[in-house]
Write a structure and sequence with these properties.
Blueprint lengths: L20 H4 L11 H27 L3 H22 L8 H21 L4 H29 L4 H4 L33 H24 L6 H23 L7 H22 L3 H29 L3 H5 L14 H11 L2 E4 L2 E4 L8 H10 L4 H4 L17
Antiparallel strand pairs: 1-2
Bound molecules: fe (ii) ion (4 copies).
One fe (ii) ion (FE2) binds next to helix 9 and helix 10.
Length: about 400
């Protein structure tokens, strides 16, 4: 695997990046025969693209300079088209639950790969912590898919990831203050730490949005409740991960790093993609991102007089992201950290946490006597769900 050197890559000029509706209509992968990691790459890159255009919208609402606004509008339109091209690679005959299995597979194998290559010890612990929660979500959704559709989730993953209990979902629910984390420092963090941050924030944000926009499409109450419960854990994951970023970065520094990260992710996908047609898409999109990055560098230099290499912290990212089976790593983390919870920004066994921990009361309140993630792994006869909620 070769290192990614963003400043040596050739980019496509912005004005050449817009596509016709016909060019945007990408041919979906075949859900039965595709490499499961092709599906996970599509899910990941859709999340990366959604973050790119959502963040640029947020920036445009907070930056007064007309020239920057105009510049962001131009790049954002390209991001928007990239997102559609990528997301439309998903086939229409894939059910919401099958796609969901793909999402949690990404959460497991992506988080494990990022953690394995994270050089900051604290940041690796943060990744390991949420890894075990998404690992459990995979187990809960798999049980639910078996019940709802009579399908084995291993058919979706082709057995690449283990499906078994992790840290049980019922104990994921914590007081919002317990998602606060220590952040890395923009002047000393490695390029890889910065890329890991942007990648995982985008992936978790995408997962949260997917559960929040698809949970209500089910007609039965148990599915609706399960998506609602797990969407809330993803909200916690996004909160945890955005907290590890250095918020003293200026918007234009962040904008530049985001473009590097998009390019880095496409570069990584192209390195390992087994479908030649889709590999070509990753390569084309990578060149588009280099075009975005060059544009972001211009803004950074002109408005803030900053050196992009200094902002990145180097001229390369040593290791590409590799989506592949990570069973051994996951089992090791599971053996060591299954009962961990965050206490005063460190991760320790729950048994060592004092009784007054705010998350104990929070957990009891949200769980009450109805925990969807528990019901889905019980026998059918026990799957009783309250018919109508009275609200608060
Ligand atoms: Fe993009
Ligand atoms: Fe999850
Ligand atoms: Fe998650
Ligand atoms: Fe971009």
């Amino acid at each position: 695997m070769t290192a990614f050197r963003p400043f040596d890559e050739k980019g496509t000029p912005l004005e050449e990046q817009f596509m016709s509706w016909e060019q945007l209509l990408s041919e979906p992968y075949d859900k039965n025969n595709a490499d499961p990691y092709t599906r996970t790459r599509v899910i990941l890159m859709n999340g990366i693209e959604n973050n790119a255009f959502i963040t640029k919208h947020a920036m445009a609402r907070l930056i007064a300079d007309e020239e920057i606004k105009e510049n962001l509008a131009m790049v954002r339109r390209s991001e928007s088209m990239q997102q559609q091209l990528v997301e439309w690679l998903n086939p229409g005959n894939q059910t919401i639950l099958e796609t969901t299995i793909g999402y949690e597979q990404v959460a497991v194998d992506l988080t494990a790969d990022l953690a394995m290559n994270e050089d900051d010890d604290y940041q690796r612990k943060v990744l390991d912590f949420a890894l075990l929660e998404d690992f459990d979500h995979l187990y809960r959704y798999s049980a639910h898919m078996q019940r709802m559709e009579g399908k084995d989730a291993n058919k979706v993953t082709k057995g690449a990831v283990e499906i078994k209990e992790g840290r049980p979902t019922r104990v994921h629910h914590r007081h919002p203050h317990d998602e606060m984390r220590n952040h890395w420092n923009k002047d000393t963090a490695s390029p890889k730490t910065k890329m890991n941050f942007l990648t995982i924030v985008s992936a978790e944000q995408q997962t949260e949005n997917y559960y929040k926009t698809h949970g209500s499409m089910f007609q039965d109450d148990l599915s609706r409740a399960l998506y609602s419960e797990i969407a809330d854990v993803e909200e916690q994951h996004v909160t945890q991960y955005e907290n590890v970023g250095d918020a003293t970065m200026t918007p234009l520094e962040m904008n530049f790093l985001m473009e590097v990260n998009e390019a880095y992710n496409y570069f990584s996908c192209a390195q390992s993609e087994s479908d030649p047609r889709i590999k070509q898409i990753w390569e084309t999109m990578m060149r588009d991102e280099i075009g975005h990055m060059q544009n972001a560098i211009e803004l950074l230099q002109r408005f803030e007089n900053k050196d992009p290499e200094k902002v990145l912290g180097g001229d390369r990212i040593e290791k590409p992201i590799l989506l592949r089976p990570t069973k051994e790593y996951v089992n090791q983390v599971l053996a060591e950290q299954k009962d961990f919870q965050p206490y005063e920004r460190e991760f320790i066994p729950e048994s060592q946490i004092p009784k007054g921990w705010a998350s104990f009361a929070f957990r009891d309140k949200v769980n009450g006597d109805f925990i969807p993630s528990e019901i889905v792994v019980q026998g059918k006869e026990k799957q009783k769900v309250p018919v109508t909620s009275r609200g608060r």
